[in-house]
Amino acid sequence: MDFSVNEYGYYGNFGGAFIPEMLYPNVKQLQENYLKIIYSDDFQNEFRQLLRDYAGRPTPLFFAERLSEKYGAKIFLKREDLCHTGAHKINNTIGQILLALRSGKKRIIAETGAGQHGVATATVCALKGLECIIYMGEKDIERQAPNVARMKMLGATVVPAVSGSKTLKDATNEAIRDWINNPVDTHYIIGSVVGPHPYPDMVARFQSVISEEMRKQLLERTNSELPTHVIACVGGGSNAAGAFYHFLNDENVKLIAVEAAGCGIDSGKSAATTQLGKPGILHGSKSLLMQTADGQVIEPHSISAGLDYPGIGPLHAHLFETGRAIFMSATDEEALAAAFELSKTEGIIPALETAHALHVLNKIEFKKEDVAVICLSGRGDKDLATYMKYI
Ligand SMILES: *Cc1c(COP(=O)(O)O)cnc(C)c1O
């Protein structure tokens, strides 16, 4: 089976570039140039250096001894939570900033829901001295005050989106409008493996450093580059894409993607896209998305802002359809319990998103010799206000 994108940006039945005509020139320029740019020596040298000295890579692969004892397998944690700004998102924003600079762009725009992608974008814009504009729903600006303050302190302009539900999808619409109006000098940084081709492939390549490191680290620790299981949570799917990337063609490695079931898959308050979604087009690509019978996008729900998304990237839709990845889910309550468990057994407070991935340790029947790697996508500082309600 082939899990790479074809020249039209498709993974099997999913992907493509469904965009307003005004954006053709921008997107076409990216499609034609991204691979040439990101695999040039000059780019790779600077990318690798910044990942090492600025983001803090390679991130450790930590053997979780007490969790391993409890679940009866060797369990490793890939510590993306130790990256600068607290999650894997910085891998992608560094990559896209370097690409923007080499494409002659001086102005960066992005949209953000919870603010994590906005903070990672504002961070690298500050590093490179670029103008940074972050679109954010007015409601999210109120809900995510600490991240808004971070972005402003980093020099970004935060622009409220005041239409519709005043959340992520409205911020996305504003960002696209800006891009149409400023096609020459502006690069739009998308924060996950979603959007029109080439974004899903480009973001997956930037995040693939996660599984590249895992293979080397596993070889040192277990004498094999291959684990039996790789487990990651899925919002849009970028940390999972990065964690799966270099194992996609190793059929014996089970890839497990964990979605947010919110209050329960059938509760009407969920974000379990593969379980509830149908093929459709959202934010520039064809994928699975949660929609009504007449194609209206259904508002998702998850306790974690980073998984609160009604779609999923086209690679993951393809992994689901072909059965290459196993899709599981965790409810809000199950994720909370898993977050408290990791905190107490290993001394690591995970992000709420990540806690969804941790939950499925309860659901998998491991053999003693199994080696499972969980992508610990982010740390929990940003979620303390939520955790405090349950302490
Ligand atoms: C944003 C975020 C996610 C979800 O995004 P993906 O693109 O699915 O990885 C997961 N974990 C953390 C910590 C995040 O900040």
Description:
Helices cover 42% and strands 18% of the residues. It has 391 residues and is of the alpha/beta class. It has a six-stranded mixed sheet, with helices on both faces. It has a four-stranded parallel sheet with strand order 7-6-5-8, with helices on both faces. The longest helix has 15 residues, at 24-38. The N and C termini lie far apart (47 Å). The mean pLDDT is 96. It binds pyridoxal-5'-phosphate. Pyridoxal-5'-phosphate is lined by residues 87, 89, 116, 192, 233-240, 306-307, 351, 353-354, 377-378.
Radius of gyration, in Å, reads: 19 Å
Total domains: 2
Q: Could you tell me which ligands this complex binds, including any ions or cofactors?
A: pyridoxal-5'-phosphate
Shape annotation: globular
- CATH-defined topology of the largest domain: Rossmann fold
Main beta-sheet strand count, sense and barrel state: 6 strands, mixed
**Can you count the beta strands?**
14
Q: Give the class from helix and strand content and strand pairing.
A: alpha/beta
CATH architecture of the largest domain: 3-Layer(aba) Sandwich
Order of helices and strands: EEHHEHEHEHEHHEHEHHEHEHEEHEHHEH
The strand order across the widest sheet is 3-4-14-9-10-13
Strand content: 15-25%
Average pLDDT number? 96
> Low-confidence stretches at least 5 residues in length (pLDDT < 50)?
none
How many helix segments? 16
C-alpha end-to-end distance: 47 Å
Approximate helicity band: 40-55%
| CATH classification, class level of the largest domain | Alpha Beta
